[in-house]
Structure formats: structure tokens, C-alpha cells
Amino acid sequence: MASMAERLAANVNFGVLAKAETLKKRLWFTLGALIIYRIGSYIPIPGIDPGALEEIFQQNAGGILGMFNMFAGGALGRMTIFALNIIPYISASIIMQLLVASSPTLGQLRKEGEAGRKKINQYTRYGTVFLAALQGYGIAIGLETFQASFGPVVIDSGALFRYSTVITLVGGTIFLMWLGEQITQRGIGNGISLIIFAGIVAELPSALAATFDLGRSGALSTGLLIFFLFMAISVIAFIVFMERAQRRLIVQYPKRQSGNKILGGEASHMPLKLNSAGVIPPIFASSLLLLPSTVGQLNAAGGPEWLYNFSTFLGGPGQPVYTSIYMALIIFFAFFYTALVFNPQETAENLRKHGGYIPGIRPGGHTADYIDYILTRLTTLGSIYLAAVCLLPEYLIAEYALPFYFGGTSLLIVVSVSMDTMAQVQSHLIAHQYEGLIKHARLRGARARR
Hints:
Helix content: over 70%
Distance between the termini: 6 Å
Shape: globular
Radius of gyration: 26 Å
Structural class: mainly alpha
CATH topology: Preprotein translocase SecY subunit
Strand content: 5-15%
């Protein structure tokens, strides 16, 4: 018995260490993948004059291009292989989810389980390649039309430059799509969100330095500078508060007798977050706005006139038309994505199967209607919160030419992704500790029987 207890103790220690080692490997894999992404964001596409590009981009960085550059982690301003970032993949995902929700054929695929999900993911990848090629071609033509004060941006324009630019940008987007999937499967957190998060965080120091330069040069007064920093801290605190807000529905389970014991009868709760969609609505809304307008601005002289007219009509952050469309898209995607991730009918059916019920509400359809009513009210407040956080700071940014990295959208992404990633790390640690406690309890039982 002694040797058995010793072997069990060794297995306990080995199991806990193995689980901790798995978490460590996941963290290192995620960090390594993000470092690779940041290295790639400094590798320029061939045939570009960096000095001329920097001059042109500084002249156009205050509008849509500046916001796209924020999502790309500065890669667009440097015109690197990751200039498109993961935006085409997000746009393709939006289109595919809308098609799945509206098409009976694609909707049936989603119900087929893992096989259907793989097919939908494959269609999304095809859409990503198409959108990346479209955007890459528009960027290539747009770059050929730019003239800096000392020469053109493209050293040798022509079909070869366009072809190589499209291939390079499409390849960079496909690589980031694959890298994001690898982070999700083998790392910690959502890979796509972490890629956008890493790009924003990496450019924050330079954005902070640029903001202080505005104060040192007199473009911003000291009072305004302090106010902006205080506003950024206040927005972060508000985001944390709202992301943790939830409505708890009491769920009661009936008592049942098993032999001489009375089981059940306990009350639990079902947490419904105020913002069930998370950071997805602002990312989706920004992607849809950036897709046509960026190509329209870059391709002002050589592309379709309607596309350029649309980008001009849309304006940029802080402009009325842009703000109205952006707000409408955020609210729409908040409801749309919440409906995708939470099904009241399915939740009510699961409660009924396990004997649970909400006090005062009949099981089945009435429970589903009640959950849907509560969820709709919460999503309404959550969508208003998302729109307010993303839009209100944009007016100040547009008015005082502050970097986009201090806008509500970027702060929301940084805070939300940080909280989600830390929650996943904590869940891994709790699971490891829980397994360790169970095995220690078994060990004590083996020693007691000895």
C-alpha cells in the first residue's frame, strides 16, 4: 500500500506539472506568433520609395487611412506585406455569417456539426482571398498615382508591380489568417482579436510620444493634454465596469428522492452579460467601412469614379455621415452576433431537460420568451454603450488631430481582448488547481485505507 500511495503521489505531481507546462507552452506559442506578426509588419512590399510613401501618408493619415493603419498596427503606413492585416478575413466572415443566417442551404450546413463548420470556414477562406486580391489591386493602382514632392511613391510602375503587390498582400493576409487560427487552437485567446490587439498595443508608445510632441510644440495646451489622458483612463475604467456587468437569472432545480437521500432543490443562476457580443461589433463595423473607402481613397485617380465618390461622401471619423453609418453598424452587429452566440430556445430546452426552471416562469416556450425579452433589453443597453464608447472620443480626435490609438474603438479592443485572454488563463489555472485537489483527495483516501 505504501508503494501504491507513493506512485499515486508521483502521478499527482507529474499531472499538475504537466498541466502547468501545457499552459506555459500555450503562452509561449502565442507570444512567438505575435512576435512573428510584428516582424512581418516591417517587411516592405517591393518597388516602394519609403520616403515618398511617408510624406504621402502623413498628408492623408487623418481620415480613413489613419484608422485602417491603426487596425493594421502601422503596417499600412509602412506598406508592408501585412498592410491589409486581417481585415479581409473579418469582412469575409461577416459576409458568410450573414449568408448563413439568410440562406437555407448554408443554414443547413451549420446544423451538420463539425463537417458543416469546416465547409463554412473553407468558403470564408475563399472569400478572404477574393477580398484581399480586390483590395490589393486597388492599393497597387492607388500607389502608382501618388506623387510626393521629390518623386513618385512607386519606383517602377506597371503590370509587374501590380501583380507582385497583389500576390504579396494576399499572401500576407492568408498567412495572418492561418496564424490567427493557430493561436486560437494552440495558444491562449482568440487569434484574430489578439493580432489586432498586438498591432494597436505595439503602436501605443509612438502614439503617446506624438501626443506629447503636440503639447511640447504648443498645438495642444497642457490642460487639454491632461484632459485627454484623464479621458482615456476614464474610458478604460468604464469599459471594464460595463464588460463585467451582467444580469443573473435565478434557476431553481426541484428536489428528488434517491433511496433515503433527498437530492437537488438547490438554486443556481444563469449569467447574461450586458455586452454578450464583446468587441466583435466595432471590429465588424470598422471592417465594412474600411473595405470600400480605403480602396476608394488610395485609388482616387485610377479607379471607378463611384468608389471615390463614395469614400468622399463617407468622410472619416468625426464626420456626420461616417458617424451615423458606424453607429448603425455597431448596433446591428451587436444584435446580430448576440443572436448567433446565444439561442434562448435552446437554453430553455436544456433547462427543461435537466429539470431546471426560472421561478414564476413556465418551462418551455414561456421560458424562452422570457430569456429573449431580458436578452433584448440587455443587448439594447450594450449596443448603446458600444456606440458611445467608440464614437464620443472620435470627435475629440478629429477636432484636435490626436492619434487614433487613443480613440474609443482602440481602447475597447485593447481592454476587452486583455480581459478575455486573462479570463482564459485563469480558467486554465483553476482547472489545473481543481484537478490537483481531486488527486490529492484521492491520495489522502489511499493513505487512510493503508
